[in-house]
Amino acid sequence: MSNRPTQPRESICPYCGVGCGITYNPDSGKATGWKGPVNTRGEICPKGAAAWEIVDHEDRLTTPLVRDGETFVPVSWETALEEVTEAFSEIVETDGPDALGFFASSNCTNEENYVLQKLARGLGTNNVDNCARLCHSSTVAAMGERFGAGAMTNTLEDLEEADAYLVAGANPAEQHPIIFRSYLLPAVRDGTELIHVDPRENDTTKAATHHLPVKPGFDIPLLNAVAKVIVEEDLTDEAFLETRVEGVDAFAEFLEGVAVDDNARQAGVDPDDLRAAARAYAEADRAAIFTGMGMSQHHCGTDNVHALLNLALLTGNVGERGTGVNPLRGQNNVQGAGDVGALPNVLPGYRPVTDSEAREDAADVWGFEPPATPGLTEVEMTHAFGEDLRGALVFGENPAVTEPNADRVRERFEKLDCLVVLDLFETETAEYADVILPGSAWAEKAGTVTNTDRQVMRMRPNTEPPGDARLDLAVLCALGEGLADDGVRFEYDGPEAVFEELTEVLPQYAGMSYAGIGTGSQRWPFPAGAEEGVCVLHSDRFESGRRTANLRAVEHVDPVDEVADDELVLTTGRVLQHFNSGALTRRSETLVRMRGEDVLQIHPEDAERRDIADGDSVRVESDRGSVTIEADLTPAIRRGTVFATFHYADPLINRLTGDTLDPVAKIPEYKHSAVTVEIHRE
Ligand SMILES: Nc1nc2c(c(=O)[nH]1)N[C@H]1C(S)=C(S)[C@@H](COP(=O)(O)OP(=O)(O)OC[C@H]3O[C@@H](n4cnc5c(=O)[nH]c(N)nc54)[C@H](O)[C@@H]3O)O[C@H]1N2
Ligand SMILES: Nc1nc2c(c(=O)[nH]1)N[C@H]1C(S)=C(S)[C@@H](COP(=O)(O)OP(=O)(O)OC[C@H]3O[C@@H](n4cnc5c(=O)[nH]c(N)nc54)[C@H](O)[C@@H]3O)O[C@H]1N2
Ligand code: SF4
Ligand SMILES: [Mo]
Q1: pTM of the model
Q2: Ligand 3 pocket test: which of 10, 11, 12, 15 has the largest number of ligand atoms within 8 Å of its C-beta?
């Protein structure tokens, strides 16, 4: 049956977690916005507008490939799938299912990720994770523990009503452009204060009323000082503290040991600026926090977020419109990939694998009980390649570019007995594959994705996969049928049937349906029988079921890398025109024209000391590796800090980053590496 419609159908942008409505017109080959639940006027950013270029791209994989020595040869689907089934079955028989690892995809649908985690668990392993691990796992850990849910507490719509925004370690002007332009900026123009905590001035800072250029890795001293100002100046919400908060006295005692001036200096910011920012947040009638990678991607990422949660509790900014703590989520379905259980420690709906009742509930629907021991997380999996792990399936991720300490990661990939990659392109990760399976792009698939403010929306196909490429869902189901025990269901009559099944095991989605979603959205939590989803979480009770949450004393811990006198601190991040590993955006002519190469932002004084001029090629080196990159002299970055993106395979910035993990969430420290920077001489 042809997927090709007579009219372009409504789908969702394949890039960021904003989840804008876009559609692909197969006749013109172009992508345009439609009036979606988030982009209500049909507005889209440059990435969305260029998303058509990857659909028909000449590099698209069009046939399954298997390794033949140093090259790949095209094979039939039958041969490719047989190869995977045989290799994986042999590994399971010899070393048990925990010798396999499954990388799910935050760029892919709920249905696809649900099937993949069911496949892993059906084989008997919880070794399944997605790159939510690398973005907000620490946020989810902290918020989950204290509030009972790790998602955005509020909705984009009600956040327009805030009187102050505290944006910590996020740059929504570039990373969540339509949220910034359509929700935050209008409020700021209307008088909402914007406090930006970021070591760099970027497009978000341009709209800020306060900027605290924090030293990377020193957010805890800064946030504790803000808490101290709030308490010292009686800016707390006493009624809220009395009814909704515990641990108030112990926290007050902890703050006695905090000196605002000392902490501000330790964090590298001006104490008066910090006080002014604290007042702007705490004096606002309603104040909302946004948090991003600058907070989460540290070996103390979970603690960073704990320190942030204290501010919302002290000021009573939880549970009402225009308030809360709002992690801006990464890809178009990173929220959903976690919701449906593509995580090693929880089943769908964040129910722990260690909870026997949760396992039994899953067994009632699946016909088998999932394993009870938590599996390995993403970085742990690559580190175990060639040791505990012998085989892996990487679906819609490019870890050879995006995981930290990339040289080590690549060495590890070499050690796998069988690597299977399901992607659109022959990525840097696919270079290590034994079998490459050609999947389907956004414009070709149907299914649902869950955006950053918990809205489940539908994607609809407008064209068909090229050549022999297949729908991702069909590939995953075929693998399930080949690998799992007889009787475990992997045969579905399309994504809607998968969605129906997942609503049975995912309590937050229980009342949802394709018909109900339509061209709108349904927001979780959406219990069975409900008319609509809950907008503002934690209003009477926290999602934990408790009326109260705790204040938590959080101590600063130094970053992993010690920084010598001649060294600088490298922090990494994103720019508007490119996306993550760049697998898609580096192939988009329009986006490359807008921004071609990576550069190293360096302060002119740091550059001068090293005889570096603007545009020079410089060599950046850490204990892990080195890269050469062009210097971009700019006072927008704080002294002592340099910044580059990780969007390119050359230079491969993750050669420099470290792989020490946050002990709770297992997120790596992408945002603080000690490096030397010098002129590169051939
Ligand atoms: N254009 C574009 N949009 C994207 C993506 C993309 O690649 N490109 N990726 C998507 C994904 S997967 C994600 S997770 C989100 C991420 O979205 P963001 O969280 O906005 O992403 P980053 O640029 O990694 O980090 C944000 C800011 O943190 C600052 N920062 C660095 N170190 C520190 C620190 O120690 N403390 C503090 N307070 N700030 C620090 C950086 O200077 C940077 O401006 O974006 C999504 N949207
Ligand atoms: N230094 C540094 N490193 C970082 C970060 C950082 O801030 N600094 N951020 C981290 C974060 S937050 C994240 S989320 C990760 C992202 O890490 P990854 O998830 O590895 O990066 P992506 O480029 O998003 O990979 C997506 C892959 O899926 C493929 N793909 C896209 N759509 C589809 C589809 O529909 N079907 C199939 N089959 N394939 C598809 C693309 O071709 C691409 O290869 O990077 C992390 N790495
Ligand atoms: S803001 Fe995000 S979802 Fe919207 S068009 Fe841009 S990349 Fe796509
Ligand atoms: Mo991310």
Answers
A1: 0.98
A2: 15
